[in-house]
Amino acid sequence: MKHFKLCTSLVLSTAFLSSTVFAVSFNEWKQEVMMPPASPYVWTGYYAGLNLGLVQHTMDITDVNASTFYATIQQNMNPKWIGGLQAGYRRQTDCLRVSTVYGIEFSADFANAKYSKEYGAPFALYQFDARNTLKDVLLLQLTGGIAVDRALFFLAAGLSWINISGSANNLDGAPFFNSYNLDKKQFGTALGAGIEYAVTQKISARFKVDVISANNYTTHDETGNAFEVSNRIVQAVLGVNYNFA
Description:
By secondary structure, this protein is mainly beta. It starts with a helix and ends with a strand. It contains one helix and ten strands, in the order αββββββββββ. It has an eight-stranded antiparallel barrel. The protein has one helix at about 1-35, and strands spanning about 45-65, 70-75, 80-90, 100-120, 125-150, 150-170, 180, 185-200, 205-220, 225-245. It has two domains: about 1-35; about 45-245, Porin. Helices cover about 15% and strands about 65% of the residues. The longest helix is centred in the first third of the chain and has 33 residues, at about 1-35.
């Protein structure tokens, strides 16, 4: 009889405990089901921020008249520091977790990226010292991409404006070439791509790469010889934006 009562008590206790646990679990599940999903992040609005990164500048100089170095010399600079600011406006097409985003952005980056090298040799056909400095890079681009909640993957395309100073000076005093100037503020094109992540509702961090091609131009030395100059710039920057939406 004692064993029967003990077994009965154990069965009743187990049933009571199980029903209690089931009720608590069911209520928690019900609350989770009834809780509305979190709203997706909204990318629409104005934004502005700062950036810092590296830039690589390549300058090709072609002796058009084949009167000096009879070829194209390439001034390929090692990556240097560059930094600046960006500002723009974005619009999200809908409020789904995956949606398209488009907009326009202006950026201004500043550097003091210097390059210097001697070409030729003593008693050769030519010997000169070439120098250039990349100072400013301004971009005005249309942007478009895909937003996956707080992550934004985007492409950019538009216009560029660069400010370069430089010169080439003859070192051996040959009469057919003295010096020419490379100072130029030149327009061109720019293509970019990047990813941005919203850390909070107002602050987002991003990584962006731009490939910039300035329009070719021609400069002349003191004797009238022509030299065609082309510039290619690649910059990669990390940035932080404040979103005003």
